[in-house]
Each structure stands twice: as structure tokens, then as C-alpha cells.
Request: fold
Amino acid sequence: MGIYIDNKGKAQKVANLAVLMSQLLLESGAEVYRVEDTGFRICNSCKGIEDVNVFVTTNMIMVSFLYYNENIMAMRRVKNAGTNLKVVSEINQLSRKFVNSVIHIDVAFKEVEEIRRKTKIESLHKIIGGAFAAGSSTFLFGGNWKESVIAFIIGIISLVFLDKISKLNYSFFIENFSTAFILSFCASFAAALGIVENQNSIIIGALMPLVPGVSITNAVRDLMSGDVLAGISRISIAVFTSAAIAIGVGTALILFIQGGLL
Reply:
């Protein structure tokens, strides 16, 4: 099985497809070993291609192989990474269809672009889902119904802000710091107005969508798979993300405490 590659142009298309699909996986929170395996299987399934090498870090993808003793290579820098398990699942299914010769390479490109297009539309779903997570998490930290509703509203505000600021290509540290500051400020403001008695459960609940739990999990899985560079990199990002969140929350609280409002 596998698509027969009969010219250099089609071989370069395969490399570009492997890089594009790997990019979507990496941007959606997939583990490095899964990204490398997907890129390898896509290229290795094609007849005429041999000596496939795929190298992936947390911000770079490189694919190379030999096509009748001629080296073909494609590389892409990955800047923004998040978590979208639906994209990971759809790319995995698409890669299996391609490897099993169910679809042609041009059709695969169209399906990848369709997955990318749907990802942009799903921002609203992320915001609503994150807001519900913020509201429900408030109960786990001693909040009541009123505080849960406030956390839900603050979750929407903070996640809309995060969605907007992420499009400005700031560093992940600035994005998480400013988002944590906004939600902590809103919760503290609600407490200062007397709407709620305790803003702590609201802040902690609203922070749940920002906590880098998936990054830490993937970092451990990458380390256990032997991808030491990717694992250490992801752990470092998770640590700095947590620090940005803590500093953002602390800054807002200090402003209110020094102002005598809390």
C-alpha cells in the first residue's frame, strides 16, 4: 500500500504535507513523539521515498528523505501552541487515511486546510467551555452559587481578552500575566463592591483554564519517550507560565490591598 511518487514535485508535496500536518499537531498540544511518528508514517508510506528522517522540538519541525538519491527537505517554525484535542484526533484520522492510500495527496491538503479553518471558528467554543470550567471549579474551592456565576462571567471576560491578545504575537509570559491580572482585578473589584464576600475561590476557579496541566503531562510523556530536549523545554514553559499567572494575580491583589479596598 502507499501512494507512488513519480516525480520530484510530488515528493516535495509529500514533505510539505508531513510538515503541515505535524505543525497542526504540535500547535494543538500533541506530544513530540506523536508528531514525529505521524510525519514519519506519512513519508514512509509513499513508494519511491526512503531514508525518512523527522526531527521535532517544541517550536520547530524538520522532515527530510531521499527520492532516488536526491535529498528532499521541508522545515517549519512553530510559534503558537495551545491545546485542541479535536484537531489532534482529526489529524490522526487523516494521516491514517493517507497512509492507507484512501485519499490522494491533493485531497489530503484540502482536508488539512479545512481542519485549520474549523480551528479558527472554534475560539467561541473554547471561551464558553473555559467559562463553564471556571464557574464549576469555583465550587471545588469553597465557592457558592453567586461566586460561581461571577467566576463564569470573569472567565468569559478573561478568555476573550486572552483570545484577542494571543493574536498580537506577544510572548506567552505576557499573555498569561495580563490575563491573570485581568481576572484577579475583576474578582477583587467584585469583592470591593460587596457583591461577593470572598474573591479567593473566584480567582482560583477562573484560573483553571489557564493552568498548564496538559503541557506538564506532555512534558513527562516526552521525557519518558526519550525526547529530553522537548520534555525539558515544555517543563520550562509550564514553570514560566505558572510564574506569569502567579505574578499577574499577585499584582492585582496588591493594588487593591494597598488601596485599602480589600
